[in-house]
Write a structure and sequence with these properties.
The protein is an alpha+beta fold. The protein is built from 3 helices and 2 strands; from the N terminus they run H-E-H-H-E. The chain folds into 2 domains: about 50 residues, no CATH class; about 40 residues, no CATH class.
């Protein structure tokens, strides 16, 4: 996959993380991986519940601030399929040499 293609930003972040681990911290990268997590929500209420419980999913999530977007998502959900949320993640496993 090219860095310009889908997910290019996450691949660039993995490479930058590897470089930081190697040079700045003196660590050896043992494993690195990038991926995309997809979650399906059948209604906006379940999305709101998820975002309140898993607070690191969207830092600073506030129902009152996001109300217009949530209402828009509800209207779209009524017309279409389940709400699909995609989150790009990456993993770096590093250790000290020796």
């Amino acid at each position: 996959m090219s860095e310009q293609g889908r997910g290019g930003g996450i691949l660039r972040s993995v490479r930058q993380g590897e470089t930081i681990a190697r040079w700045a911290a003196g660590l050896v990268v043992v494993e690195s991986a990038a991926g995309e997590e997809r979650q399906h929500f059948n209604d906006v209420a379940s999305l709101v519940y998820y975002l309140k419980v898993v607070s690191e999913a969207v830092l600073g999530f506030d129902v009152d601030v996001c109300r217009p977007a949530l209402l828009n998502a509800h209207v779209k959900k009524v017309r279409d399929a389940p709400l699909v949320v995609r989150q790009r993640r990456f993993l770096l496993v590093a250790s000290r040499p020796g």
